[in-house]
Each structure stands twice: as structure tokens, then as C-alpha cells.
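Hi R.,

Here's the chain you asked about this morning:
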Amino acid sequence: MNATVPNPAPQTLRLSRSAQLRRMLLSPELEFLMEAHNGLSARIVREAGFSGIWASGLSISAQFGVRDNNEASWTQVVDMLEFMADASDLPILLDGDTGYGNFNNLRRLVRKLEQRGIGGVCIEDKIFPKTNSFLNGERQPLADIEEFAGKIAAGKDTQTDADFCIVARVEALIAGWGMEEALRRAEAYRIAGADAILIHSKLSRPDEILAFAREWCNRAPLVIVPTKYYSTPSDVFRKAGISTVIWANHLVRSSAAAMQAVARDIHANQTVVNVEDRIVSVEEIFRLQDADEYSAAERLYLSAATAPRSAIVLAAGRGRGLEAQTAERPKIMLNIAGKPLLRWLIDGFKKQQINQITVVGGYRADAIETAGIRLVLNERHAQTGELASLACASGALDADTVICYGDLMFRSYVLRALVESKGEFSVVVDSSESGAGNRTVRDFAYCSRADDRGLFGTPVRLERVVAGKESAAAGAEPAPVPHGRWIGLLNVSRAGVPRLQRVLAQLQERADFDTLDMPALLNALLADGAAIEVQYVHGHWRGVNDLEDLHSAVDFAHAQAPLAGAQDGSSS
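And the predicted structure, written out as C-alpha cells:
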């Protein structure tokens, strides 16, 4: 007999935004809506812990730089709401003024708000175009009760989401029509289908609001906006049976105050030094913009052809044999034919669309020009080696990345061939330096086959890298001749980044980690099963290790200048 397969446990479905708003209005607890006026402020409201957003007409108008007199069109308001809804998953109640016209305008508004996932709209019983209630409110005419009730009914008949909320805002107290008129209008709007009543007052005390609440007797949820009677404790509203409190304009007012103060300070002092510590960092703005989500999506979805590339330059050392030239600057800032060695590297990277460049500095890092790069420090550069510097920049390993020694110069094709490699890892090996007669050169490479100088050959794999030419023991066979020299360029594909990070973390557990160099990482990757492709070159690069190398690098740089002649094509 077949076993019975149990039904999967039902999943908890998140309420729609309109349902969330309706639940807030009907809640027995006092609820709070916080004003927001754009995507950034909507995200801030969410992070502050509020359960809902009041899309204030005053604040949205203010951020557009226009008056709260329907000078911003309803389509501009709805466009802003879309940004707010995208930035926050909270329910939004729109301050919809008078509905931007008659019943037909409200019907279209309701349809557009539902399409954008807005939880509800609050409309007020004044004449279109409206004026802010606190600007001579007693002189402002009110709409006819029957006409406004018909507008509410039209909105309710139009909505397709049963939870979409229409809140009717009663302006009778603002306009000086008295309590009886306010109650009469509220009851008419409730009968017409309003989901809640917003009762407004311009007094600095809550007396009118509390009197209205007593007479209203919870016939429908009651919403208030204590802009004027702000000193009233919230417990007073709880005891009065108020449903929801709206903090209506405090974010736009606080941001205006901050902007005014900062602008005045910068203008007066002609510097930002006085304000920099009093404002949020640029990184905080990036965080509020959800920049990390974009970076993650970029890694997931962009093809290799369009994905951003990065580079890590290891440049923490002073340079041996160059002490006289590096007394005041690190080796990477040595002048080579008119510009620093670092600038030659940056220019070479940018030609290959490598624009995210991280430089690991150490010795005299204060002298490194940071234009076009991100500088990180190896504070222990005097006691550590290359892998410790790489570990300082491990956070930059989030895309196709070239890891490079900081004392290199190379022809552009060398880097281009490297980054166009399809392997998870690839290195550049100079086959003209096989090590014959040279036991001082480091980083000899043994590969799966020698460089046959053929244009089309089978892929070459790296097998190991050693510090110098291996010598044979007495009576033993001579050690094999290396196939070339690894020049200090390693390309790590986005797919290879996790393996590199894992192997680097394993090496960090070793007691001798501080002494390890890049060849140790290459050999550890090989031991881990990584396939490292070899791109052979025959010269066309320079490493600046001593004074003789420095002079050679100057000649090499001049050979790279436009129309430099035949020297550019030489391998020496």
C-alpha cells in the first residue's frame, strides 16, 4: 500500500499593504503613522520601527519646492509614491488632499494607487484646489456634504482590493464651523463608506479632539494629527479611544533645519571641515540606497563580458636596494618617465575596463596618491609578507579580480590576454626568463608544457612556483629547467573567488602565515585542485626591484610612448 504523503504545512502569508493599514486602523491599540516624502525618508521610517507611513501632501510639495496648494500634480505625487513603495514595505496612507478634483478624479486616483500597492488615501472635505489647513483655515470654504459623500462612495465602488482604505478628513473645526457640523459631516462620510474619520484641529490643546471623540463613540476608527497639540501625552489619546496618530511633517521639517544649518556653515566658512562630523557619511547614504543589494545582484546576473572587474595591488613595501629613492615615499610612488609607478598601473588597468582598484599600502602609505583607487593599510607591513597584505584587501574580492605586485610595468596586451582568460585562475609567465644562469630571480614557474611560441596551442597549466632555480643533490639528476618566471600577475575569475578566499583562510591558520608570499598561495591553490592557466609572454614587462631595474623601467616607459619606434616591440 502506498504511504500517504502528508500535506505540506501551510505557509504564513504576509498581509498586503492595504490589509496591514486596515488592521492598524481597526487595532484596539493606539497606532502611529510617520510622515515620509520620498524613497529615502520612507526607508528611514521603516528602519526607525514604525508600522506605517503617512505620505504627507505638505511634505511631498515641500520636497518638490512648491506650495501645498495642489501645485504638484496628482501624477507627480503618485510617481513619488512609487519610489516610496519601492523603498519600504510598509503600508502607505496618502494625504490625497481633496482627491484632486471631483468624484471622477478620485476614481482614477484609487485605481492608480491600487496599481502601485498603496494602502489607502485620505481625502478632506474642502474645495479643489486646496490650501493647507493652517493657512487661514477659517476662511477656506468646505465642500458640500452630499458632494463629498458621493466622492467617497465613488472611491469605494471603484476599488478592487477590499482592504484598500479611504479615510475621510473633516475640516469643520479648522474652518470654524463648530462641533455639531463636524459630527454631522463625519457621520455622513461614515455612512457613505469611509473606513475611518480623521478629525483635525488647529488648537494648541487637544480639547476639541477629545470632545469630538466622546461624542463620536467609536462609530468608526478615529485618526488624529497632533501637529499643534504636540505636547499632549499619547496616553491621553489611548484613553480617548483614538485609533491612529499621524506625525505629519516632522521628517521634512527636521531635514530642512539640518540643510539650512549646514548650507550656512559651508557658505560662511568656505570649508566642510566644520560639518563633516555632524552629518552622515557617504557610506550611510549608500547603505540607505541599498547599494549592497545591487552589488550582490551584479555578481549574480551580469555576464562576464559586462561584469565589473577589479584589481588588488600589493604595495606595502619600501623596496630593497632603493632606500635612497624611497626615504619619503613607497616604491609604488617612484617617478617613472614623468609619472608615478602607481599611475602606470592605474592607466593600464583602466584600458582594460578595470576601474575598481584597491591598493594595499604600508610603508609611507601617507604618500600614496589616492585618486582613482581605494587605499587599505597593512599596519604590520614591516613584519609580514605579501599574503598578509592580500588578506587586508580580501573584502575587495567580489568580482573578476587581478592581483598584482605594486612594482610592475607591462605592455597592454599582457594584461588584456590575462583578463580574457576563461579559466578560474590564470597567471602570466615570461618564458624568456627560464632561469638559466640566474639563481637570484624568484618565482620560477613549472608548467604543463613549454612555450612553443605557437599561436594556437593546447592550454598550458601551472604546476608549481618556486623561489629560485632548484638545484640537484650530489649524484642526482639535474633539476628540470623551469619554463619561465611568474611575473606577479594573477587573474581570479568571479567563479574562483570563493576558492581563493577559502584557501587564503586556511593559510592564515598556519603559524608561518606572516612570512608567506604569493607563490605560496599559488601552490596552495594547486594543492587544492585548482586549474591555473598560463599565459606565456616573452619579455614586454618590467619589475622594479633595485636601482638597475628602476633605470630599465624608465627606458621601458619611454618605449611605450606613442610613435616611440622599434624599441616598443623588443623583448628586452
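The chain has a mean pLDDT of 88.

Let me know if you need anything else.
M.
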